[in-house]
Amino acid sequence: MSHVTLLTGPERRRRWIEEDQCRILAAAFAPGATVAAVARQYDVATSLIYKWRRTVRARETELEE
Q1: What Cα–Cα distance (Å) separates residue 4 from each residue in 10, 25, 37, 39?
Q2: How many CB atoms neighbour CB 49 within 10 A?
Q3: Residue 28: how many other CB atoms lie within 10 Å
Q4: CA angle, corner 40, sides to 37 and 19, nearest 5?
Q5: H helices of the chain, where?
Q6: Torsion angle in degrees (nearest 10) through CA of 13, 46, 20, 8
Q7: Which of 53, 34, 35 has its CA nearest to residue 44?
Q8: φ and ψ at residue 42, rounded to 5 degrees
Q9: pLDDT value for 32
Q10: Helices 46-64 and 18-28, packing angle to 10 deg
Q11: What pLDDT digit, counting tens, does each position of 4-59 carry?
Q12: How far is Cα 22 from Cα 19, in angstroms, rounded to an integer?
């Protein structure tokens, strides 16, 4: 059975704090894990997980330069 998350008020999108993003990324790219399973577990789109990963890698690249 599926569930629905209802966001009310002026803010229609969920805001993820950086610590949550890092925790989700670590779980998604751990050995043996699948991004789809982690996305379902945390109720987040798989594309958003990949976007977060690109953002983190871009930041790391900027710091190295």
Answers
A1: 18, 23, 17, 15
A2: 20
A3: 22
A4: 95
A5: 18-28, 35-42, 46-64
A6: 20
A7: 35
A8: -100, 5
A9: 96
A10: 100
A11: 666 666 666 788 999 999 999 999 999 999 999 999 999 999 999 999 999 999 99
A12: 5
Nearest to 30 by CA among 58, 63, 5, 53: 53
What is the C-alpha separation between 25 and 38, in angstroms, rounded?
Answer: 9
Entry pTM: 0.77
Which amino acid makes up residue 19?
E
- Return the axis-axis angle of helices 35-42 and 18-28, rounded to nearest 10°: 140
Q: What pLDDT score was predicted for residue 2? A: 65
Tokens 């577990």 locate to 41
